[in-house]
Specification:
It is a single chain. The protein is built from 22 helices and seven strands. By secondary structure, the protein is α/β, with parallel strands linked by helices. The chain has a four-stranded parallel sheet, sandwiched between helices. It has a three-stranded parallel sheet with strand order 6-5-7, sandwiched between helices. Helix 2 runs antiparallel to helix 3, helix 17 crosses helix 19 and helix 20 packs across helix 21. The protein starts with a helix and ends in a 5-residue tail after the last helix. The mean pLDDT is about 95.
Length: about 425
């Protein structure tokens, strides 16, 4: 893949011309309507007449939901045109990261959203103060944050937890129940490590309740998605290599003990990065090994359920003595759908007996793109279909796998979603920490 700007411009013209002729993806984001409008204004409808600024506008409006790739008839291996629109947009981001002149505010936004572990550690250490600062969208402190570091004042941000997930994990006493069905390494992600610790605790609870032992390999860092989506591929690959090395070592150690290990991820964007982006941007046997053994948290549970039943067992425990909502709206995040694994969280929730309404509309967050003040108007416009569908369903509970998308649901509907694993934990009667 060339990162020379002239080569990029040539490829953008080729792909934009193909997309303009197809128009299948007009509904997924504003990148495509913007692209079509720029080309349609010329009588010849020649994509080569777009200016570099117009090409870049299309790039800036792409928020990497990946849905165009999932639905594209021209993807590599399926067509001679070898079209991968999201990957091309990231390639453009990487070129523009090096060549585009950025304002101080844009640089601060990149730093704030890209330094997830640093910000997370400070946020957890100063949790009461930090949460007071960020807890009220539209407040004076949030307006100040928007003006200085570019994070939209109206966004609902997850609060920091004084006790980090890894701290809780090390102090807890494992309680694996019944026959051992597997061993999983938890890749908690920065969101679960510093903020949404409840999801991590409920993951461990549900796993151990079903005979799956959980481990937490030392030294994990943020998957690097915010850096990659900014175009900072050098910093991204540095984080990726660290995670790949320690996870590959853990997998090989477990396999040496006769285990069939899994790396489980409770956040969709991070799972996509481990499965796809580590292979594409770092590559090699270790990256491929990690990708092969990485599962979304619900995906692995449903795999254990299926494998155990095929072996003559009962699968996952289906005795739910806790609280089961009569109806649940399940929001399927884009980065989970892009993994092409099916709707495993929905299937897991169905085991509890709750009646599911599926909402598969984009939240407009997609990593950290929708948190930026410069993108929030477009992002909230994209999220309206999601909000309308959730409001119309009017379910007793709302579930969603992505913590940031769940914040978008709160903003647009006033409804507080929880991770599917938390609903399952309450259905089992497991106490909320």
């Amino acid at each position: 893949m060339s990162f020379v700007e002239s080569d990029l411009r040539e490829e953008l013209t080729r792909v934009y011309d193909l997309c303009h002729g197809c128009r299948l993806c007009f509904k997924y984001c504003t990148s495509f309507p913007t692209l079509f409008e720029y080309i349609d204004q010329h009588e010849s409808q020649d994509a080569a007449l777009m200016t570099p600024e117009q090409q870049d506008q299309v790039v800036d409006e792409c928020f990497q939901c990946k849905l165009c790739y999932v639905n594209c008839p021209y993807i590599p291996g399926q067509s001679e045109w070898n079209l991968d629109f999201p990957r091309l947009m990231m390639r453009a981001d990487q070129v523009l990261f090096r060549t585009r002149k950025k304002s101080l505010k844009d640089k601060l936004t990149d730093k704030a959203l890209g330094s997830t572990d640093l910000v997370g550690k400070v946020g957890s250490a100063l949790a009461p103060v930090m949460n007071k600062t960020i807890e009220t969208p539209g407040s004076g402190t949030r307006r100040l944050i928007e003006k200085t570091v570019g994070i939209a004042e109206e966004r609902v941000l997850p609060p920091y937890q004084k006790v980090r997930f890894s701290t809780w994990f090390k102090k807890r006493t494992p309680q694996v129940r019944g026959e051992r069905k597997g061993t999983a390494a938890v890749f908690p992600t920065c969101l679960v490590e510093y903020q949404d610790t409840r999801t991590g605790k409920d993951l461990v609870g549900v796993y151990e309740h079903n005979g799956i032992a959980c481990e937490l390999p030392e030294g994990q860092v943020c998957c690097g998605a915010p850096l990659l989506h900014q175009g900072d591929v050098e910093s991204f690959t540095k984080a990726a290599r660290k995670n790949i090395a320690l996870l590959a070592k853990w997998i090989r150690t477990q396999r040496g003990r006769g285990e069939d290990p899994a790396v489980v991820v409770p956040q969709p964007t991070c799972g996509y990065v481990l499965k796809k982006d580590y292979v594409d941007y770092v590559g090699g046997p270790d990256a491929e090994l990690v990708a092969e053994h990485t599962f979304d948290a619900a995906e692995y549970l449903m795999k254990v359920h299926k494998d155990d039943k095929e072996a003559g067992g009962e699968g996952l425990d289906r005795e739910f003595g806790g609280t089961v909502p009569e109806t649940t709206t399940y929001h399927a995040p884009c980065h989970l759908r892009a993994q092409n694994i099916g709707l495993k969280s929905r299937d897991l929730l169905k085991l509890t007996g709750t009646k599911i309404t599926l909402v598969a509309e984009c939240s407009g967050i997609d990593g950290t793109w929708g948190l930026r003040e410069s993108n929030v108007e477009i992002a909230r416009g994209v999220a309206q279909k999601m909000a309308e569908a959730i409001t119309k369903a009017d379910s007793e509970a709302v579930a969603g796998d992505c913590s940031l998308a769940n914040g978008g649901i709160v903003l647009e509907t006033g409804t507080e979603p929880v991770h599917p694993l938390s609903l399952v934990a309450r259905a089992y009667g497991l106490p909320e920490d």
